[in-house]
């Protein structure tokens, strides 16, 4: 079953255990003594080899030496200076010689680093321990089966955002109800809390926002803070800090004040008192996440103040305790202004006005977690403000937990996008991870896809998206290929006949979803409210225009697409740096994957393939359908490699996905055909 996620530690073969014992045969730990890293190491070792790893009293051949910079042994190995460069979470795993002994050293500055190192070591052992007697070099070392690993995470804060409500439901959650049993807390602790913390620590996640950004003021009541404290205590040994989403009107709604104006002294004091109360209970509390003046939520603008006024007031309250504010830039109003350009227009004038413990949390694209969007132009545009990317792991716009869509390619596409803000090479990754602008804060957030389903994420393959987010947050240079490979091998098995086709399927799956849902830059063709299926024709009397698909596709008899160009359109393209601005602005140079995002294009426009736009749309939708049928065939062949439960679960969901893909194709093509007035080519699977 899927409950163990990627932490299955399947037993190594006798040969593998033998080769491993030629590298590590005992463990020696001086400082910090008892710690989660050691518990995890021993647990996994037993699973992998069938035996405990003997604890040595002194250094000998094949010792695994573990310690922080405080350890005398680590100091005697001359690693101290190097450890200073690793920050609190970084680590070294290195094979060395000491007094004639061949040893492996795991060292870090703080205890969290050791935890990440142990999980790294265990991953390497599982993925690369040679199955023959011939010892091999793993990672970067030069002698046989040598470790020479030094890692420092890309982002200081690697955080999940749970959109979990206090009544146990999850906004956009597709894996059952919330893991957090608010009614049982703080008295009763579900065993899954610890499992959750372990899983996160194993991929380097070090923070979690427990509650929905559409936040209930109640979360800050003392009764709830006691519950939060109980969770924080379970998470602490795994290096996970707890954060909360807060409602900006809490002083009025919860505290009974007459206002929540951030410049009001009573309001400021209320937040200061609240911070004191929180830190009295949870000394390592991380801070607040705030959705303000967005989708009807309260915020500083209700009082004629700016986002900076609001964020800074909270930041000042948290500052004495080293807490931070993650202030979301996901704002848009029902107005004549193009929604895609609104966040940029609202936030860029505030650049430089935020406190140093404020970070702006920016969704990867300018609209809303669509199957494909260009990156948000805010990245690179605010050089004096710390910015963090927000990705969605839960598949609100990607088939919920019915569709197999591996999201590492989507995350990576954004991180790798060149903003050109400081010339070529100014990628979103570099803009946000501190390489280009030295902000004291760096962070990255993922909206969690976790619920109380036995397999945690609804779809077995949705676990890969949680895994991929964590791995990219740790190292934004990893490739989707490497991450998929790691995940498949740990979650299923290492047989090449399984790993290769399944990896190929995963890597193709995001593009397939784009193809059958909204190719060529189309966006937001989703059904009203639930965002699962297609409804490009949707009309709702009295509804906001920007909540209807017609706002985004703008199909008419002349063509289709949103004109965001400088001359005839909304001008939102002007928010990108040169050369993107010019490239996107011109029909001829705009990448076709963003064509209908930036342009209203005639149906008969000639695409690079030589096809008309209309035909290209038809072929691309059809391609998406055929890709999913291909995934079904691939998976069917995997039956003998997987346990029956997981095999059937995935198989049945792929059936739904392929039916849905046809539904998307037929719905969109038949609807758009009423405008294009062109025939659907005979060589595609035609609507029935
Ligand atoms: O797109 C919207 C989602 C909302 C969500 C919002 C946000 C939490 O449909 O459900 O609210 O994004 O990110 O704040």
From TrEMBL:
It catalyses: Hydrolysis of (1->2)-alpha-D-(4-O-methyl)glucuronosyl links in the main chain of hardwood xylans. Its EC number is 3.2.1.131. Residues 5-121 form the Alpha glucuronidase N-terminal domain. InterPro entries: A-glucoronidase_C_sf, GH, Glyco_hydro_67_aGlcAse, Glyco_hydro_67_aGlcAse_N, Glyco_hydro_67_C, Glyco_hydro_67_cat, Hex-like_dom2. Residues 145-456 form the Glycosyl hydrolase family 67 catalytic domain. Transmembrane segments: none annotated. Signal peptide: none annotated. Residues 457-683 form the Glycosyl hydrolase family 67 C-terminal domain. The active site is at residues 295, 368, 396. It comes from the Bacteria. It is an enzyme of class 3 (hydrolase). GO terms for molecular function: alpha-glucuronidase activity; xylan alpha-1,2-glucuronosidase activity. Keywords: Carbohydrate metabolism, Glycosidase, Hydrolase, Polysaccharide degradation, Xylan degradation. One of its GO terms (biological process) is xylan catabolic process. GO terms for cellular component: extracellular region. Homodimer. Belongs to the glycosyl hydrolase 67 family. This is Xylan alpha-1,2-glucuronidase.
């Amino acid at each position: 079953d899927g409950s163990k996620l990627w932490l299955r530690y399947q037993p190594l073969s006798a040969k593998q255990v033998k080769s491993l014992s030629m590298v590590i045969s005992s463990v020696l730990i001086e400082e910090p003594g008892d710690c989660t890293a050691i518990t995890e190491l021993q647990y996994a070792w037993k699973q992998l080899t069938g035996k405990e790893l003997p604890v040595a009293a002194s250094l000998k051949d094949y010792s695994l030496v573990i310690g922080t910079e405080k350890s005398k042994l680590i100091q005697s190995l001359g690693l101290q200076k190097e450890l200073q460069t690793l920050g609190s979470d970084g680590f070294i795993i290195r094979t060395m010689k000491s007094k004639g002994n061949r040893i492996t050293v795991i060292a870090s500055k703080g205890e969290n680093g050791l935890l990440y190192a142990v999980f790294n070591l265990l991953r390497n052992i599982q993925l690369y321990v040679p199955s023959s007697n011939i010892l091999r070099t793993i990672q970067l070392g030069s002698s046989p089966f040598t470790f020479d690993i030094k890692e420092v995470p890309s982002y200081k804060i690697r955080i999940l955002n749970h959109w979990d409500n206090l009544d146990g439901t999850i906004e956009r959650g597709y894996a059952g109800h919330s893991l957090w049993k608010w009614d049982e807390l703080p008295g009763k602790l579900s065993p899954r809390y610890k499992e959750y913390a372990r899983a996160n620590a194993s991929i380097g996640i070090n923070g979690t926002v427990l509650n929905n950004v559409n936040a209930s003021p109640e979360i800050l009541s003392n009764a709830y803070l006691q519950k939060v404290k109980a969770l924080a205590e379970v998470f602490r040994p795994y290096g996970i800090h707890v954060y909360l989403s807060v409602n900006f009107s809490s002083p009025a709604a919860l505290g009974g004040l007459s206002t929540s104006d951030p410049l009001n002294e009573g309001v400021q004091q209320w937040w200061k008192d609240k911070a004191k109360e929180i830190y009295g209970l949870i000394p390592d509390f991380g801070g607040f996440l705030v959705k303000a003046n967005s989708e009807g939520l309260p915020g500083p603008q209700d009082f004629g103040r700016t986002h900076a006024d609001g964020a800074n007031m909270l930041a000042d309250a948290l500052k004495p305790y080293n807490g931070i504010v993650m202030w979301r830039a996901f704002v848009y109003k029902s107005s004549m202004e193009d929604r895609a350009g609104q966040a940029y227009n609202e936030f860029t004038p505030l650049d430089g006005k935020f406190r140093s413990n404020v970070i702006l949390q920016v969704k990867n694209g300018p609209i809303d977690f669509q199957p494909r969007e260009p990156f948000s132009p805010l990245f690179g545009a605010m050089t004096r403000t710390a910015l963090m990317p927000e990705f969605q792991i839960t598949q609100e716009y990607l088939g919920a937990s019915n569709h197999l869509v591996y999201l590492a390619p989507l995350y990576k596409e954004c991180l790798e996008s060149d903003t050109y803000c400081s010339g070529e090479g100014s990628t979103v990754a570099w803009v946000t991870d501190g390489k280009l602008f030295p902000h004291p804060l760096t962070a990255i957030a993922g909206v969690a896809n976790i619920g109380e389903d036995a397999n945690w994420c609804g779809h077995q393959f949705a676990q890969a998206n949680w895994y991929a987010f964590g791995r990219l947050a740790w190292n934004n240079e990893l490739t989707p290929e490497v991450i998929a490979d790691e995940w498949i091998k740990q979650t299923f098995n290492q047989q090449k006949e399984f790993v290769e086709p399944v990896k190929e399927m995963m890597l193709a799956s995001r593009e397939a979803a784009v193809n059958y849902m909204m190719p060529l830059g189309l966006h937001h063709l989703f059904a009203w409210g639930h965002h699962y299926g297609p409804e490009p024709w949707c009309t709702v009397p009295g509804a906001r225009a920007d909540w209807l698909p017609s706002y985004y596709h703008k199909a008419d008899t002349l063509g289709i697409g949103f004109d965001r160009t400088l001359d005839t359109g909304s001008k939102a393209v002007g928010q990108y740096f040169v050369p993107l601005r010019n490239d996107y602005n011109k029909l001829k140079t705009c990448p076709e994957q963003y064509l209908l995002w930036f342009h209203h294009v005639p149906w008969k426009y000639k695409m690079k393939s030589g096809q008309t736009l209309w035909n290209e749309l038809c072929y691309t939708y059809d391609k998406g359908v055929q890709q999913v049928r291909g995934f079904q065939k691939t998976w069917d062949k995997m039956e003998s490699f997987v346990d029956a439960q997981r095999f059937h679960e995935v198989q049945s969901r792929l059936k739904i996905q392929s039916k849905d893909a046809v539904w998307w194709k037929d719905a969109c093509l038949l609807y758009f055909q009423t405008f294009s007035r062109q025939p659907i080519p005979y060589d595609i699977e035609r609507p029935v």
